[in-house]
Specification:
GO terms for molecular function: cytochrome-c oxidase activity. One of its GO terms (cellular component) is membrane. The chain is an all-alpha fold. It contains 7 helices and no strands. Helix content is 74%, strand content 0%. Helix 3 runs antiparallel to helix 6, helix 3 packs parallel to helix 7 and helix 5 packs antiparallel against helix 6.
């Protein structure tokens, strides 16, 4: 192990950042080709698998640096947590841009949509039906993942695994109910600006739920492999932060998209 005269971790040369970036580019290009030219779906699937393969190898090397090489000191952990905070802030401003559009049209609806918000012939969902159930599900998932984290801090691994498993179940059930809600919708994404904003906001939130489930599944796998301790579980803690962020965004979506205009 090389000794440095500073407390920082200098990452060794790795091919995975470049290969992962190229695989993401290929995946997005094949997605556009699939959308607009109706070409073979298997090319899209192949690029997705290549992206996941490269990402998995990159994460494998990071875990090796953390667990076996001892590179992730307390100072490095502090910087990694700060990086996650910046990432969550960037995601927050991503949703703020949608809320900005929504409130702009809510406060001053354009004459092209009849100066009504929501526009006429938009039959909105009842906030006390599926949206309310989804709110309960996400709040419950926030409770279970906090329970899991607290159990891990107290070296109660069995309870941590069970409560984390329930959090994943809640997330999957949320996505299923959102799929049912979309199927029962009386409007679509091209029904005026309201339909566009509604499906963009709820759709991207659903995508964030999907990413959060993937993070929790990876944390669950590592917890089963006994790769977490009560003082070193950065992967799980960052997944927890992200999940709480997604929960918070949904409460604002429910309040302004469903309850306020009903």
């Amino acid at each position: 192990m090389t000794n440095y005269n500073h407390p920082y971790h200098l990452v060794t040369l790795s091919p995975w950042p470049l290969l992962t970036s190229l695989s993401i580019f290929n995946f997005l290009m094949s997605l556009c080709v699939w959308f607009y030219l109706n070409m073979n779906f298997y090319i899209l699937f192949l690029n997705l698998m290549l992206f996941l393969f490269n990402l998995n190898l990159w994460i494998r090397d990071v875990i090796r640096e953390s667990m076996f090489q001892g590179m992730h000191t307390m100072l490095i952990m502090k910087f990694l947590k700060f990086s996650m905070i910046l990432f969550i802030i960037s995601e927050l401003f991503f949703f703020i841009s949608f809320f900005w559009t929504y409130f702009h049209m809510f406060i001053s609806p354009d004459f092209e949509i009849g100066m009504n918000w929501p526009p006429k012939n938009i039959f909105m969902f009842s906030p006390y039906d599926i949206p309310f159930l989804n709110s309960i599900i996400l709040i419950s998932s926030g409770i279970t993942i906090t329970w899991s984290h607290n159990s891990l801090l107290n070296n109660n691994y069995n309870v941590a695994l069970i409560s984390l498993k329930w959090t994943i179940y809640f997330g999957v059930y949320f996505l299923y109910l959102q799929y049912v809600e979309y199927n029962e919708s009386f409007f679509c994404i091209n029904d005026s600006i309201f339909g566009s904003v509604f499906f963009m906001m709820t759709g991207f939130h659903g995508f964030h739920i999907l990413v959060g489930i993937a993070m929790l599944l990876y944390s669950f796998h590592r917890m089963e492999m006994a790769q977490f301790s009560k003082i070193h579980h950065f992967n799980f803690e960052m997944a927890l932060w992200y999940w709480h962020f997604v929960d918070m965004i949904w409460l604002f979506l429910y309040m302004f998209l469903y309850w306020w205009i009903y």
